[in-house]
Amino acid sequence: MVQIKTPEQIAKMREAGLVVAAIHAATREVAVPGATTKDLDEAARKVLADHGAKSNFLGYGGFPATICTSVNEVVVHGIPSEEVVLKDGDIISIDCGAVIDGWHGDAAYTAFVGSGHAPELIELSRVTEESMWHGIAAMKNGNRLVDVSRAIETYIRRQPRPATGEHSLGKFGIIEDYGGHGIGTEMHMDPHLLNYVSRKRGKGPRLVPGFCLAIEPMVSLGTPRTEVLEDDWTVITTDGTWSSHWEHSVALTEDGPLVLTAPDGGRAKLAELGVTAAPDPLA
C-alpha cells in the first residue's frame, strides 16, 4: 500500500525536509580534516534541538546515532564514532532525517574532506548526484515507479568510464542491495525503489499527486555488491572501492515534483533538466 499525501501533509513534510537541509548545512561545516564522525553527529543533534524536531535515525532498529556517516568504501549506515577521524582526501556520505509532528524527511549527500581529491572521486560524486536529479525529474504524473529507476540507471550507464586510480576499478557499480523508498508517517514505507530496472519487479505503481519518495542512488567505483560488518550496520563494498550516496525526499504534486529536502525545493537543478518544480507550500 502506497500512502498518498494531501497538500497539507506535504507542507508538513516540507517543514521536516527543511530541518534535514539545515543538518546538511551544519555538518558540511564540520566535515574537515581532524574532525571525528561523532562531531558531525553532535552538530546534527544541535540542529534538531534548535528546530524542535526529532531524529528518525536514532533508535531506528537499534541504530545508536542521529546520522549515518559513511567514509570512503563505506556505502551506507556508518556509525558516528570518536575513533573515526576524517583525513584530508577522504569522502564521506552523510545521511540524516527529521520528524515534525509525525511527518518525516530523509536526505543524504557526499562531501569532500579537505582538498586534492582524485578526479575519479569527484566524478563519482557528480555522477551519483546527477543520477538522483534525473530520477527526480522522472517523477511525473502518470509515470510509473520503474520510470524513476530507469532514469537513474540510464544516466549512470551513459557516463564515460571513470579514470582508474587508487580508489577505482575504472567502472561505476550501481549498488544492488539498497535503494530508495516511500516516506511519510514513517521513514521507510512502500514502495521500494531500485536504482536500476529489474524485470522481476515489473513497472510498479503509477505516480499520482501525493506520491512521496526518498530517491537515493548509491554508486561505487567498482563492484555493485556489498557486505555488512560485524556491527550489523556498516555496509561496505566487497572490493574496497570507494562509493557515493545522494538522496532527497520528493513529493509529487498537481504542479510537478517538490524536493522537500532541498532549500529551494529543487527549482534550480530541475530547471537545468527542463522541469518546473512545484511551488513551495511554505513560501
Automatic annotation (TrEMBL):
GO terms for molecular function: initiator methionyl aminopeptidase activity; metal ion binding; metalloaminopeptidase activity. Its EC number is 3.4.11.18. A divalent metal cation 2 binds at residues 106, 181, 216, 247. It catalyses: Release of N-terminal amino acids, preferentially methionine, from peptides and arylamides. PROSITE patterns: MAP_1. It comes from the Bacteria. SUPFAM superfamilies: Creatinase/aminopeptidase (SSF55920). InterPro entries: Creatinase/aminopeptidase-like (IPR036005), Pept_M24 (IPR000994), Pept_M24_MAP (IPR001714), Pept_M24A_MAP1 (IPR002467). GO terms for cellular component: cytosol. Substrate binds at residues 77, 188. Coiled coil: none annotated. GO terms for biological process: proteolysis. Residues 12-254 form the Peptidase M24 domain. CDD domains: MetAP1. A divalent metal cation 1 binds at residues 95, 106, 247. Binds 2 divalent metal cations per subunit. Has a high-affinity and a low affinity metal-binding site. The true nature of the physiological cofactor is under debate. The enzyme is active with cobalt, zinc, manganese or divalent iron ions. Most likely, methionine aminopeptidases function as mononuclear Fe(2+)-metalloproteases under physiological conditions, and the catalytically relevant metal-binding site has been assigned to the histidine-containing high-affinity site. Keywords: Aminopeptidase, Hydrolase, Metal-binding, Protease. Its cofactor is Co(2+); Zn(2+); Mn(2+); Fe(2+). Removes the N-terminal methionine from nascent proteins. The N-terminal methionine is often cleaved when the second residue in the primary sequence is small and uncharged (Met-Ala-, Cys, Gly, Pro, Ser, Thr, or Val). Requires deformylation of the N(alpha)-formylated initiator methionine before it can be hydrolyzed. Belongs to the peptidase M24A family. Methionine aminopeptidase type 1 subfamily. Monomer. This is Methionine aminopeptidase. It comes from Streptomyces kanasensis. The gene is map.
